[in-house]
């Protein structure tokens, strides 16, 4: 059930000062009270990811066709920033994730992942970085630091999410380009989680650095199409999740050098109802079982742990967007164990592409559509 109310907002929100604007608030029922949803802005074309700029709540937002914009808390959209790379804009391809450098206040570097065209009409995921200008109008000196090789996608399963760990390593969660067997091939970067330094160099302690014929960037393998990744703030470990086929979406806590099964081990089947040809079962010796699995796929995208003080009811919860299920998934955690799964915002009818925790303690969501929205989500006072 949902209800509506309008509130007036006013003030200065980083880009400049604005007169009061009218914002619509919707209320949705949940197990922990009424969930509030405000539309910050709309009219975004298939928005894919967002990142908060320091010192306020201005955000960088990617649009899949290849635009990077600044969004103010009041909802003002900037013009597309200059200096963004050309993207392969077919199918699921385009401009994807965005992440700030851990040292952004000093170096102003912005990292982007995107689908990049190669030969013979094929594409792969690339990652680069550029300096955000002081006037917020462009990325200067954009340089590619990583390319998925070989390029095998004809428009699907690019991944991808970018995550920095506490030591400054950059993790890139990749898809297998719908070329299933490649997820098991250590000489290819399809279906892999990779770990590099911020400049693209390979850490000497990566698990396959000394393995002949293996790509040294690889951290873990046997993944399908990873579209969520985040650092657990309580353990410091990286969590990632990936789309299964028809069934078998899963969360993993990837460890170095380990095989997470796809396509040998899966809880899913092909979209047409037939078994996955390479599959040997739901779990297979020599591969790691999922940390958590949905036997019916919600089509998961985006991931955010909640460790803010604003809404104590959400402490030690993990929030994940769902595209097909059109919901915000709330997973309650006891340590690393998932103890409860609740679907929020089902009545909203929106494909949720990204989920981020804002500096103000609210959750921020992007909805995936030709006229997508940026939403601010919280809990109302009881």
UniProtKB/TrEMBL annotation:
Name of the protein: Oxidoreductase
A Pfam cross-reference name: GSDH
Signal sequence, start to end: 1-23
Superkingdom per UniProt: Bacteria
Gene source species: Stutzerimonas stutzeri
InterPro entries to which the protein is assigned, alphabetical: 6-blade_b-propeller_TolB-like, Glc/Sorbosone_DH, Quinoprot_gluc/sorb_DH_b-prop
Domain Glucose/Sorbosone dehydrogenase: 44-376
Residues spanning the membrane: none
The entry's keywords: Signal
């Amino acid at each position: 059930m949902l209800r509506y109310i309008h509130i007036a907002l006013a003030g200065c929100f980083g880009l400049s000062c604005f007169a009061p604007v009218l914002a619509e608030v919707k209320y949705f029922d949940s197990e922990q009270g009424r969930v509030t949803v405000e539309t910050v802005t709309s009219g975004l074309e298939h928005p894919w990811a967002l990142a908060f700029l320091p010192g306020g709540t201005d955000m960088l937002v990617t649009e899949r066709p290849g635009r990077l914009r600044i969004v103010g808390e009041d909802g003002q959209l900037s013009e597309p920033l200059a200096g963004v790379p050309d993207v392969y804009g077919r199918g699921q391809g385009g401009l994807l994730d965005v992440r700030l450098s851990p040292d952004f206040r000093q170096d102003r570097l912005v990292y982007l992942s995107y689908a990049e065209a190669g030969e013979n009409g094929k594409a792969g995921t690339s990652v680069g970085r550029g300096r955000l200008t002081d006037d917020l109008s462009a990325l200067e000196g954009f340089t590619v630091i990583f390319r998925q090789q070989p390029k095998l996608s004809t428009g699907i399963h690019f991944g991808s999410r970018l995550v920095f760990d506490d030591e400054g390593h950059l993790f890139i969660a990749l898809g297998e380009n719908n070329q299933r067997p490649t997820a098991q091939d250590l000489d290819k970067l399809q279906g892999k989680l990779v770990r590099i330094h911020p400049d693209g160099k390979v850490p000497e302690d990566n698990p396959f650095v000394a393995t002949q014929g293996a790509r040294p960037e690889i951290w873990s393998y046997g993944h399908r199409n990873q579209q969520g990744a985040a650092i657990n703030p309580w353990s410091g470990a990286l969590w990632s999740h990936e789309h299964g086929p028809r069934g078998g979406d899963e969360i993993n806590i990837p460890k170095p050098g380990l095989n997470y099964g796809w396509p040998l081990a899966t809880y899913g089947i092909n979209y047409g109802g037939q078994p996955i040809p390479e599959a040997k079962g739901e779990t297979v010796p020599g591969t790691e079982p999922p940390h958590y699995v949905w036997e019916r796929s919600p089509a998961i995208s985006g991931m955010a742990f909640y460790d803010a003080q604003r809404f104590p009811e959400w402490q030690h919860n993990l929030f994940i967007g769902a595209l097909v299920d059109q919901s915000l998934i709330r997973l309650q955690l006891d340590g690393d164990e998932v103890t409860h799964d609740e679907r929020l915002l089902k009545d909203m009818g929106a494909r949720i592409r990204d989920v981020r925790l804002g500096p103000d303690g609210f959750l921020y969501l992007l909805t995936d559509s030709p006229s997508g929205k940026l939403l601010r989500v919280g809990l109302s006072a009881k």
